[in-house]
Each structure stands twice: as C-alpha cells, then as structure tokens.
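User: These chains co-purify. Model them together.
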Amino acid sequence: MAITQLSVFLENSPGRLAEAVRIISDAEVNIRAMSLADTKDFGILRIIVSDADKAKSTLSANYIVMETRVIAVKMDDQAGALNNILQTLEKAQINVEYMYAFTGSESYSAYVVLRVDDLEHAEEVLAESGMPTLTDEKLKAIL
Amino acid sequence: MKNYYQKEIETAPREKILEIQNEKLRKQIRHVYDNVKYYRDLMDQKGVKPDDIRTVDDIKFLPFLSKADLREAYPYGLLGTDLKNCVRIHSTSGTTGKRVVAFYTQHDIDIWEECCARAIVAAGGTDEDVCQVCYGYGLFTGGSGLHGGSHKVGCLTLPMSSGNTDRQIQFMMDLGSTIICCTPSYAAYIGETLAEMGYKPEDNKLKAGIFGAEPWTEEMRRSIEKSLGIKAYDIYGLTETSGPGVSFECEEQSGMHINEDHFYAEIIDPDTGEVLPEGSKGELVFTALDKEAFPLIRYRTRDICTLSRKECSCGRTHVKMSKPMGRSDDMMIIRGVNVFPSQIETVLLKEGYTPNYQIVVDRERNNDTFDVYVELNPDQFSDKVSDIQNRERTLESAMRTMLGIGPKMHLVAPKTITRSEGKAVRVIDKRKLHD
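Assistant: Joint model of the two components:
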C-alpha cells in the first residue's frame, strides 16, 4: 500500500530547482504532484512522478534522492472533504508531518498526499472510514 | 622485522645523536656566521659569537628567524653559499604574503631525499613497491621530495603530480600502485572518487599512504584508511627547512620522528620565546644542522605541537613531535576565541560527516559571523525539514562544546564544496577584506 514519493535535497540557490526539473524532463518522466519545503539554506523537493525508478536513477548522479512512502487519498470536490480525512487521522492520534494535493485525470476529483508518523495505522483507519488509499498501481491508472 | 632506511643513525643511542648534533651545530654556526651577513648581524646585535655555541644546550642564546626575516631577506639574504654551488630552488605558495624562495646544493638535495626515503621505508616501502607521487611537482616541495625519496628506496616511481583524478585512478589500477603520497584532502577525494566509480577499498593494491603538507586529524586518518584500505602515515616539513621529511611517522602512528641528525628541534613559548621543557605545548623551532645553501637557524615554524622522547616500539630513537594542532597562521580568532580548523574537522568526522567542509568568517555590524558548511551524506538525508535542522542543531552544540563558541552550521548538497587537488581551502575569512 501507500505510494512512492521522491524526496530531493536541493541547495537554496538560483537554478538548483530548475536544474533538477530539467533532469526529470530529460528523462521524459512526468511530474504529477510536487511540493517544495524550503529554508534559508536548503530545500526539499517532494515529487510524485510517472516513473519513480527512472527519475531516481537519473537524479542520483547529482542529487541526494530518497524514496519515501506516503499516503494518497481521494477527496470529493466539496466542502468538508479534507476535514473528514484529517478528523479520522486525529481521532487515531496520527500526526501529519506534511501534506499537499493534486488533481486526478477524472473530473471533480482531487487527491491529498500525506506524510504521517504511522503509515500502516493511517491506512487502516482511513479504509475503515471508507476512504481507501492509493497504491502505486492505482496511481498509474489515474494519471 | 623492522623497516629502516638508515638503521644505524635512525636507531642510534641518544648520546650518539647528541654527539652528532653538537659537532654539526658548531660547524654550522661558524658556516652561517661567516657566510650569511643577515644572520651574522642578528648574532652581533645579540652579542653572540660562534665560539659561544659549544653544544645544543647553547642554542638558546642564538637569535630566532621568522617568516618576516625571510621576507626581508628575500631573495638572497639568507643564502649560505655561492649561487654557483646551488642546483635548485623551491618556493612556498605565497598565500600568506610574499613567497619564500629556498635554495639547495646537491648535498642539501641528497639529505632531503634521504629523509623522505626514511619516511617511505617506515611506511613499509621497499624496492618492490610502486610509489605514486601525487603531490604537486614544480616549485612546491611535495612532489620533488617524495619523488627523490622514492628513487632512493628503489620504488617504481609514478611522477603523477597532483590533479587529473581519473588518470590517477587509471594508473593506480593498471600499474598496481602500492604506496600513494599526496595531501590528505586529495587522498580523501581519491577515495571518494574510487567509491563513486564502484571500486571497493580492497580492489586497489595500495598498502600505505604518506600524507602531509596540511593539517589533518586522527578522524580524517581513519576515514582515509577505510576508504582506500591502507595504513595512512603522516609526514611533516616545510619549504624553509627543505620540504617534507623533516619528520615522519612509523608504524606506531603516535607522532612523527624528527630526523635529528639533520634538524634540531625546540619548543618555545610563542609569546616570550623561552624554551619550554619536554612535553610542553608550544611553537616548534628548527635549526638545520647541515644544510649548506639555506641554513636556517632557530626558524620559528608557527606550528604548535609537543615533543616526546618516550621510547618508541619501532626502535627509532629520534624525538617525536605530535601532529601540529595547526599552524598559528591557520588559527582564527572569532569573537575573541582561538579556533583551529582541525578542531572543527574533528567534530564533523566524529559526528559522521564527510571531511568536505568550509569555514566562512565575516563581520557584520562589528560582530564576527562564523559559518561552517558541510556536505550531507546520502544516508543522513530525510524528507523532513525538521530532521535536517535537528542535525544542524546537534552539530552546533557539539561545536560549542569543542570550541567554546558555536558556529552556524549549514548542511549542503554533496559535491557543492570545491575539492582541492593540492592544499585544501578550508577557511574563507572575509573580515580581511574589510580591514
């Protein structure tokens, strides 16, 4: 379960992000979702891509890259959808480290990506509440 | 089985060494007084005559020479013989001011190369070894010194000079180098490059490395030994005294034996100039006992270390000097606290970081800023910002414990800190630009 996210360590200086993105582009890998955490000195680029292995191997020549398992959950495009997910996690006392969202190819659908401190438990409680999490295979199908 | 190049002198009893030193010293002071006007004037000012110097105990009456004297006497002022007797010069990089030019007669070259040969043999070198010399060749003493020493031992010598790492590795692998000589930072870089190319430490034939020309720590030694699969030996010297080989490590790796039949060493209080008793920490001072062309007497090296005559298991009887804490030139005064780059390196390697770091000191609104940049290892990376920031905080507190003041730590991506093929640039002190 869960899906693969690539996390890339970037120096916070002009051109570093552009260069990383260029490398992914040259490898003909599609970036489906991304988030960038930044500090004064460095940034961490987090991406969900069409071919994680290929992106990782090309990026690794120049960057520190790691695979992180994250949860992706489908949300209805309506008020309260994200709230449902977060309430479920809160009840189970699961801490969210960070999150971001992307849209799927079907209309009116959005997905939230969550990095949590207890991945298996989070998937369990979300499934119990009728919110199944994506797998790498399912992710491929909706992209 | 002990390895000596010149067993008789290297293991001579103390009294014998003293006898040699006293005899050479008397002759040398006479030689310098008669031939080097600059030093004769200094002796006359102090009221010391060559006849006053009977034994090494009298050396304390002689005036010191410092880097400032060398600059003032540049280029020929300290020459001890006619230029027609000289066969070569070497020169310092001149990074701390005007270059120093040192002269050599053939005799001077011979004793220098012998000293280097002793170092190579102490590291296990024989005429069956393949010795890859990747110190710079040219004005810098590193290449020539080890090259000459390697010839004397009879090693197959690879005069690679520094740089062109791909070619270094190709020759190392194809010709089966067994000994490598370079700066420790370059050795670390070669190790790193080998690993990147997919080589394991046991894939090369190296057994020993002789590393010097810049300060390095015990932690860096272990890291180089691991990455190259070798035993790493320290070697010490400076252009002013000839070059590398003034002292060298034996298999004990617990200090460097000074070639006392050629160099007399003292430890002095850098502030008062007073000679300190054995074991005290202070500035290292050398007197060249038998150099002809550039015979420096009581030359202040600015290196801070200790001397020890404790018996060594290798059988050598020559005094050992500790690894210098750093040249007093390398010492930074940051917010009033003395900081040596070697202390920072010690903390970084202890905490599991690479020896790829840079120290930047600057001044903002009359306050010193102190920043240390170090490359993150891939296995230390996390996708969480807080994990990386915690790493920085942990390092800052370890630094504060070691130094008394805490730098701002910055973890940076691999290969963003420039690698050196010669002496590493560890410190960028921008305060000098403002003064």
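The first strand of chain A starts at residue 3 and ends at 11.
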